[in-house]
Every structure is written in C-alpha cells, then in structure tokens.
From TrEMBL:
Family in the record: Belongs to the 4-hydroxybenzoyl-CoA thioesterase family.
Keyword vocabulary terms for this entry: Hydrolase
Protein name according to UniProt: Acyl-CoA thioester hydrolase
Lineage: superkingdom: Bacteria
Keyword Hydrolase: yes
Gene3D superfamilies linked to this entry: Hotdog Thioesterase (3.10.129.10)
Keyword Cell inner membrane found: no
GO molecular function: fatty acyl-CoA hydrolase activity
Source species of the chain: Roseibium hamelinense
Lineage, top ranks: Bacteria, Pseudomonadati, Pseudomonadota, Alphaproteobacteria, Hyphomicrobiales
C-alpha cells in the first residue's frame, strides 16, 4: 500500500500548513461554511502539526507518574473575517506561539489564496487521566522547542 506523504500537510518555519477542501457537509443551507466547521478544520491542523513533530495522541504518557496524558483545548478565541464556500480550497495555518508548564499557545488561520478568512488564538492544556492540568513531559517540550 502506498502512503500519502502530504495527507498531514507540511511543516513550515515555526508552524504547519494543512490544505482542506470545503465539502457540502461543511456548509449551511446557504452554501457558506458553517461556523462550527472552522473549529474542526483548526483541530485537524493542530493534530497534524503535532503528528509531524512526532507527538502522537495515543503515545502521550508521563513515565514518571505512570499515567496517560491528553491534550484539551483550554481556550479558543475565534474571529470570523470572511466566508468560505463549497469547493473552496483552504489552508489551515498553525503557528506555535510558545509553551509553558502545562500549556501550549497557538495562532491559527484559515486562508484562501492569501486572504485570511478566520483566525483563532488557542491555548491547549496537557492533562492527566483524571483531567487535571499537568506539566508536559520533557520529551514533549523538547519537540515543541525545536519549532
């Protein structure tokens, strides 16, 4: 079986770019992208960014405390600037703004041909299996520091 080398987008500079096509399921009854779809596009961008850095959700664990870790969106501030429509080709751009303690700070944009359609400031927390924020393991912070 062949692999699709670009299915997860690509790393660029301190961030990541993921192409996304707008399908009928992403739109509302007017053919304009439904606001909740942008949140899904941003999630895909963050997940593929981390995947290409070698950070996989199913492999997150804290070996010191022998517990499984996870990512949880702590906050997301969105600004909708212009609409996207069915069949548009968009780019989800994710930039690492910093990481400290249990938090990862990201700036995300959805762009159509250099035109910014939607922006998001996102704070992601590393949490333990009981849902409490926990300092990210050194291996994770080192992978992020390389960006």
């Amino acid at each position: 079986m062949d692999t699709w080398s670009d299915i997860s987008g690509r790393l660029v500079g301190a961030g990541h770019v993921l192409p996304v096509r707008v399908y009928y399921e992403d739109t509302d009854f007017t053919g304009i992208v439904y606001h909740g779809s942008y949140v899904r596009f941003f999630e895909r961008g963050r997940s593929d960014f981390l995947r290409l850095l070698g950070i996989h959700h199913h492999q997150l664990n804290d070996s010191k405390n022998h517990q499984q870790l996870a990512f949880a969106v702590r906050s997301m501030n969105l600004e909708f600037l212009k609409p996207a429509s069915i069949d548009d080709i968009l780019e989800v751009k994710t930039a690492l703004e910093g990481a400290k303690g249990a938090r990862i700070f990201l700036k995300q944009r959805i762009v159509r041909q250099k035109e910014i359609l939607c922006e998001a400031d996102v704070v992601v927390a590393v949490i333990s299996s009981d849902g409490r924020p926990t300092r990210m393991p050194r291996s994770l912070s080192e992978k992020l520091a390389g960006r």
